[in-house]
Design goal:
The chain is built from 9 helices and no strands. It is mostly helical. The radius of gyration is 18 Å and the shape is flat.
């Protein structure tokens, strides 16, 4: 029952449209394994974070200072990546090789720069880790791997679907999809930045 709850909660989180989903779609247009690479980048941030929570550092994620710093940096980064995505969307196939390797870095950046990723682990993921500890360290490892495999499954599904269906995209569909991803990235970026800025002002001036 515990593992089923992990799968259900993990998938419900990863399937929510957000910055990581948006970059997976845009990267997958040129690279069918973009979802795998983005998931690996996601894991580079997520696995150490899960271990920190396991060893009792979950409270660090809930600190206002942590949320403010991640929100400000993450907001700026997402806005930048949104505009960069539009600028480089028409890159030639000559630059395709560089794009492939950029997916791994994108997965790292979009995960580490997302303040709500940290909040999810502080308030939803942390109780799951505590429950996994009932089965010892092996139980925690099984939980961590299954959770990441849910990310890998969904991002790979999105990546393959986008790559295989791209030949059916008209120019209008192409513009609409990339426009949607641009709005998601910039919208979340602005939201994160303004929220963090207001939190910083409140923290400094009461």
């Amino acid at each position: 029952f515990f593992l089923l709850s992990v799968i259900f909660i993990s998938l419900s989180g990863v399937m929510m449209p957000g910055p990581l989903f948006a970059v997976t779609v845009t990267k997958s247009f040129k690279n069918k394994i973009a979802g795998v690479l983005i998931s690996l980048g996601h894991g580079v941030v997520e696995f150490p974070l899960m271990f920190l929570i396991y060893f009792g550092f979950a409270q660090l994620l809930a600190w206002v200072e942590t949320q403010i710093i991640i929100g400000l940096i993450g907001g700026i980064l997402m806005i930048y990546m949104g505009f960069r995505m539009i600028k480089t969307e028409t890159k030639t196939s000559e630059e395709h090789y560089e794009s492939r390797h950029g997916s791994l870095i994108t997965g790292i950046l979009m995960t580490g720069a997302n303040p709500y990723f940290l909040l999810w682990w502080a308030f939803i993921g942390e109780p799951l880790i505590v429950n996994s500890m009932r089965f010892g360290f092996v139980g925690f490892l099984v939980f961590a791997i299954i959770h990441w495999l849910c990310d890998l499954f969904w991002n790979t599904f999105v990546s393959v679907t986008v790559f295989k269906s791209r030949r059916f995209w008209t120019r209008k569909v192409h513009i609409l999809i990339f426009g949607f991803c641009f709005v998601v990235l910039v919208g979340f970026g602005v939201w994160f930045f303004i929220s963090a800025l207001l939190a910083a002002l409140k923290f400094l001036f009461g």
